[in-house]
Amino acid sequence: MKRAVAPFAAGLLVAISMPPWGWWPLALVGIAWYGRIAEERRDEQAFITAFIFALGWFLPPLAWMWFLTIPGYFLAVALFASLHGIAAVIAHKLGNTQRSHISALIICHALVETLRLSWPFGGVPLATLSISQASSPIAALSPYVGAIGISVVVLWISLTPRKIRVIAIVLVFIGLANGWDGTSDTTQKVQLAFVQGGGQQGTHAINTDPKIVFNRHLAATRLLHPSTKRTAVIWPEDVIDINDNKKFIHSPEFDSVLAESQRLNVPIVVGITEDVVPNTFTNAVVVVNPDGRVSSRYDKVRRVPFGEYMPGRDLFAALGITTRLLPRDAVAGDTRASIEIAGTIVAVPISWEVFFGGRTNEGVADGAGYIINPTNGASYTGTLLQTEQIAASRLRAREQGRWVVQVSPTGFSAFIGPDGHVYDRTAVSERSVVERTFAVRTGRTPYSRLGNGVYIALLIAGFFLLARRRARAIRRGAS
Questions:
Q1: Which of 21, 246, 316, 466 is most buried by a 10 A CB count?
Q2: One domain for residues 299 and 333
Q3: Whole-prediction pTM
Q4: Domain limits for position 301
């Protein structure tokens, strides 16, 4: 029991570095502490040491999952902790010296962070080391290395015994990244208003009248006065729920949104859900124009596991575990994450998708001058997930050198600058209509051009290089 206290405490330090606590230096301290413990216990205890460390890391920041699915929460924590345990075992096998063991720990744990971008359930990149650094100077490296590179840098600084040298190298690159990222302002400016209707958190769709949510946002929008300077009005994700196999364009809600679009004489960007076939639905963002056209649409591709679809639904039913909070599944879209608003291409990762750098990068590759992130955190009690999402939006802003507009029905909503600075963040549950003018951006960062593939390939190459060296050392010892 005593041997479990230290790694668990080290993991808790990493947890406290995450939003909403945000004490980012503690991630470095916690990982460094874990590294010393791992070096001392380079034997059969490698798995259990890393497993306990990861339990301390993941239990607090993933607690928001409790409100979606209690079994899913414990399954996710145990799975992620096990992956880091396996990483520690492999690192122990690869590292026959202190130097090679440290290199193996960095690479293997970074590969686990990378794996979580796509597996399980299509990826669950929450409570990652990159998110813990959204407020730190290390985040300035985002336009060069993305989230994967940030995780590697955190592990490298924390685990290396040559900290002064490594920190000096990192500071040089931070200076370079702050000086140039390949993007710049254009002469075009947009004036956007986001609408947060307000209301209680901790609610679920099956227990909520969708008309109440819609009417709140309609009433808040009516606070706006027409302005020739305004470009568009942005509403959150799925604030309009169309049932009975109807289409949004044939609904009373469409007529009301169109009336406001005509009154303000600007497009209104709206999050909707529509029935697709019995027991399934699609989650989309559409652009309603004053002339009555729905000129652009994007259907969400990456769905929230246990939030928008239920993995293993039949298994849970067989075990007698209720799935009543999610009686039907969302259908994934199949298009790139971009839309056109008033003649400008805009990246539009919907809610959960902002945690995946590749989804946002699709829109920027299509020519997006800024990013919007319509989201809905009303199902979650507290602010664990909401603050992580703000952190993820800050990383996407820096990765792409673009403004991000995040808008939620109950919070948090905010404007985020290309440097990751947060403006006008709303309070939870308040009704708020906020307007800001900013420049459309152009150019692409090194990360945007390279994507995640290069960094994944480098990690895999490093892994096989260590494996090759270890194999040679074993052969030499046998001869």
A1: 466
A2: yes
A3: 0.95
A4: 183-444
